[in-house]
Amino acid sequence: MPKQTVPDIEFEKFVIAEISKLFGDKKILINTEYKTFKLEAKAMTTKESIKKRFEIILGEFERLHPFIHKDTERLHDVEQKRILFFRQQGLCAECKKPMDFKNTSSHHVTAHAKGGKTSELDQAQLLHEKCHKKVEKRKRKAD
């Protein structure tokens, strides 16, 4: 590895300071990754060099902003609702009053947007439609 010159060291400090402004106190661009990125940038703009730099930047982004993998199925189907209905003995999970199956609404305990899986029925509840709206309103207030 070639010895770093004063302009290289100043540039490295500048880049780290600028990225720190964007991401706050989160530790970013670990020195070895930064040096690898810089060496790749000094190389000719080959397909491999660009790919390596992209992988470094993407890796750093994923580390700082973890991606939530969402379930492809958003809503519970009729069979899943039927299982929940009988598991709850026909009672609303919120108010504990009897429900009419046709007027029920399924609820993800862990929000779908936060990675809750539709297939995991232990993370689902069946509610009256009005009770579901109350639960969602309460969750929005808490967030």
Would you mind describing this structure in some detail?
This protein is mainly α. The protein folds into 2 domains: 6-64; 78-142, His-Me finger endonuclease fold. The protein has helices at residues 6-23, 31-42, 47-64, 78-87, 129-142, and strands at 104-108, 124-128. It has a two-stranded antiparallel ribbon with strand order 1-2. It is elongated, with a radius of gyration of 25 Å. It starts with 5 loop residues before the first helix and ends with a helix.
Number of self-contained structural domains: 2
> Class of the largest domain, according to the CATH hierarchy?
Alpha Beta
Structural class call reads: mainly alpha
Low-confidence stretches: none
Rg for CA atoms: 25 Å
Number of strands: 2
Question: Largest sheet, if any?
Answer: 2 strands, antiparallel
The strand line-up of the biggest sheet is: 1-2
CATH topology of the largest domain: His-Me finger endonuclease fold
CATH architecture of the largest domain: 3-Layer(aba) Sandwich
> Shape, please?
elongated
User: What letter string, H or E per element, gives the SSE order?
Assistant: HHHHEEH
- How many H/I helical runs? 5
Instruction: Give the strand content.
Output: 5-15%
Distance between the termini: 49 Å
